[in-house]
Amino acid sequence: MQQQQEKDFTRRLDAGLWLKLAGYLKPYRRLLLLSAAALVVSALCDTIFPLLTREAIDRFVSAGQTAGLAGFAARYAATILVQVASIFANCWLSGRAECGINRHIRLLGFRRLSELPFSYYDQTPVGYIIARMTSDTARLGETVAWGLNDLIWSGSYVIITAVAMLLLDVRLALIVLSVMPVIAVAAVWFQKRILAGYRVVRKTNSRITGAFNEGIMGAKTTKTLQRERANCAEFSELTHTMRTASVRAAVLSALFMPIVSTLGSVAAALVLWKGGHDVFHLPGLLSIGTLAAFVQYSTGIFEPISNIARIFADMQASQAAAERVVGMLETEPEISDTPEVVARYGDSFEPRRENWPALRGDVEFDGVSFHYSTGEEVLHDFSLKVEAGQTVALVGETGSGKSTIVNLVCRFYEPTEGRILIDGVDYRERSILWLQSHLGYVLQQPHLFSGTIRENIRFGRLDATDEEIERAARMVGAESFILGLEHGYDTQVGEGGGLLSTGQKQLISFARALVANPSIFILDEATSSVDTETEQRLQSAIAAALKGRTSFIIAHRLSTIRSADVILVIRDGRIIERGSHRELLRQRGYYYQLYVNQFREEQVRASWEQARA
Amino acid sequence: MQDSPLFRRGGSLRLFGRFYEFMRGSLRKYVGGVLAVIVTVAVSFLAPLLLAGAVDASTDALQGQTGAPVNLPAFLAGWFDARGGAGYLAENVWMVAALLLALSAVGGLFQYLRGRWSAEASEEIAERLRMRLYAHLQQMSYAYHAKAETGDLIQRCTLDVETIRRFLANQLVEIFRTLAMVALALTLMARIHLGLTLISLLLVPVMFIMALWFFHWVRRLFTEADEADGKLSAMLQESLTGVRVVRAFGRQKYESDRFAARAGDVHDKSARLSVVFALYWSGSNLLSTAQTGLTLLFGILFALRGEISTGDVMVFVSYISMLIWPIRELGQILSDMGKSAVSLARLYEILDAPAEQDTPGASDAPLWADIAFDHVGFAYAGSHPVLRDVSFTVHAGATVAILGATGSGKTTMMNLLQRLYDPTSGQIRIGGRDITTISKSCLRARVGYVLQEPFLYSRTIRDNIAITRPDAPQSQIDAAARTTASDGFIAEFERGYDTLVGERGVTLSGGQKQRIAIARTLLRANDILILDDSLSAVDTETDKAIREALRAQRASGGRAPTTFIISHRITTLADADWILVVEDGRIAQQGTHADLIAEDGLYRRVYRIQAALEDELSRETA
Q1: Nearest-neighbour CA in chain A from B512: distance (Å)
Q2: What is the percentage of chain B residues whose pLDDT exceeds 70?
Q3: Whole-number mean pLDDT of chain B?
Q4: N or C: fewer beta carbons within 10 Å in chain A?
Q5: C-alpha span between A132 and A116 (Å, rounded)
Q6: Range of the domain at B581
Q7: How many distinct structural domains can be found in chain A?
């Protein structure tokens, strides 16, 4: 299996990527724009407040009079209200944009996931996909909605304040502004290093999680080998590394803000020095109120500047998430119906069942060659004719590639050369959904969905009546245990069917397949041992399910293999022997070896039960 | 969980009290951090006073009162007044500017120290906590781990530790910052003007209570949103792992609709949160700006009545704006403390579970000796008996086959030999000594036990084999690999012995894992050797090869370990020195193959069925 490389960092900001992402966010542009407008208003208010303080000092306190105080208070109150309203609007709109974007990307992603071929799933662990659909999208929504917010607020605050200062007093304004580039450089320098520092921390942290994982999962073995102390010593080294890395990153962060604020104080001190001199020596040119406003501006303007550096660092950190999400959204489905087929039979979301022909169940491999995208050819010019109602058993060691034939029959993959004919017609001339709606599919690890037993069986055919569901359950011999449960068919099965035993899940998945009334049955037999009674039930369920249907079975049970019409023996992904049970045994080839080592072990285990009966 | 004593009233205080054991070693840094915060606060409160002094001096000087006393803290005022008061200060504002800059530098230094010390302290504490958890989990009994929910344990050891670390690193010190600010602001402002102080602090308690209440209340909404998130992940997990089923039944649209419903639920819950947050932020902004406005307005009035100066008004306005943020934050911190308490309680649940203890007085003993089970019975706590009245004796160095159906109690019997569990009744004696008087460390060092489902560590194959004896020379590692017929598949890996096993390396098959596990056990010296169904996943020939190699080792080495082999296959174990047939937790039959085959019993019946399988095979291939 090809492992997906998880990158959590890219060196530089990739504008193209963010633009591409912006393309996906079209429906949210208006929301984001409105929210940004609200922010600019809020930043404007933030700049107005020091001006109001200035007015209070110059017009009332210094002048020693109260005329116009009521109007002043009213203006102050009005500014407050405008700012409160704009903050509300901004928070609300950005919040809505954030969750809207989340949902939007998730829906797009899920839609894409429903179209992606199995090669994608075979190469990508489910955990990674889930991370992409949950934490990565959440991170993106957050970055786009709130990162943008911070950026706009900081940017507009800096600009508006700069303008206000320039209008009040150009010389003092220039003094303040001259310190700005220094702070910007310092901020960028620090943020880069802080980001790198936390990256090391995150990596060490995932190693710690791994160590706990191993320490807990391997605890029993550790006990028998008496390795507790050695494990602790190794872990101790790791936690120590973690501490050093964390402290290093934290110290860097702790250094950053004081430096920015001290640089800010340089500006404030310069303003006070120059301004204080002017107030005294050039009365009329600079009022005390103006000086006070400048001191406020000069201390307030630097945090937004360092903020901007932080936002870019955040964006850089989120860029990996953006890359992964965009990468997923842009993965091309390799297997899809041609436009002509879709026009005739519909797609997976809007099928046109009225045009679907019936499916009888003849399956023919006609000169099929196949290789997985990453590997060498595993099928070469393979031909096999299976008549409706016949059984094909696929036999081989675990991991030998028995599922390849099944994948091709189900059209989870398509032949790289040659054709697969269903009822004499190349299946690419019919829709994927047409074929897959006629399949009955039972996995080795039976997979149920949370919900009731009834809902799970109905998954096979959504319009099945309760009666049909119960009939299917009866046919596979599941009814007795279902009725024994407190809520019968309406019993919740839990996440992944976790509340039922493996044998029970098997039976339900048989019923689910039966209710679909499939023409072709795909069965991956269980290897896990179940008790004798369930085993017998399963056997009769299989017999009931397969009756009169074409079936492909990844076989582990001798009885199944013996009764198959054709056995395909698979090793290292290739079909190396084919024939009936007897024929193959007589060849004394690979099948014989498998039979001796694998299938007989099953019987040896069973012999203990048998001897007691 | 909520019923556990840790969650009772007052429980969290006691918990934080207990937590002192982890904080003890870092207390000095913590106190340093808190003091540094107080210095930072004091310095930041001095700055507005200096500014006010400069402004007032300029005002006075402009009005011609150059000799007026300066409005500065006493320790500075004297100095300036001696040199001519307001006039001198107004002429030399640069002094104040320089002082401000110096103050800011000092403040910055202490802010840095606060960051550094509290980071060091909290990381040290987190390290101690992680180490204790890890060590404790290593010392927990086999029974604990057999029952433990691994996912939950891992989550506690990582996420809960992180919650606590974050609280220690940031929030704890912030509480002191806020307290210091409030105390200092109150004192300084009251000295200037009591009435304006009261007016300035009018809305502060409201803000605090609002924040406290809000964060407490919003937690419920957060929980709901988190639950919706969790359901979305669970649905995704289910749908993606079941992707074959979904496709095979053509249910893409159905699943897509289900997903849309879940994503919609997450959307609605977080959208509701964002409205609530918008209300809170704008509401608290209303309060804080209103408070500033109020202070300004009344400041003007008091200034006009001559009760305070222009500079004083500025001081009040700056103090109020400095106070508002920490007050809001405090509400959040206090409501977050609940989260840390829950995390702490979850960690103490692990730490309070008793670790495995050796029996007092237990000592080492020679283990290459006769082993006797004397009416041994065993039951897991609160469950029905797994072993009943098990009695047998085997001689040192013998090979014993333990046969029986799945679940008959074979594994439990062997667990007792390493004292992973102790018998609930009866006695096991090794060389005549009760096993419970023999130390566990001695047993585990000398009893080689290969589990049915062995765990390999995520390191190289070589390190996995040498894990029992890190100093073993390569020649012995090779020999162990050869004995277990592992050398073949190891050589097939590109990196041979240096191949990484596990998540970041190759995935080994069940049989390969078992062979490595046998190899690592054989590498060390054992007095007793237990192979728990270890040969079932290897084919018959390898099985035979491994047992022959063991026998050869025995023949040459002289003192061979007493060996127990658990299996289902009679035909391959017929040559054992002693055979135990286990049925429903009892010894159904015991003896040599010849004895048992002569008896009418389970053994003979199974033997015949298994032998018939052999015959059938030869017939089918004939």
Answers
A1: 13
A2: 95
A3: 88
A4: C
A5: 15
A6: 371-621
A7: 2
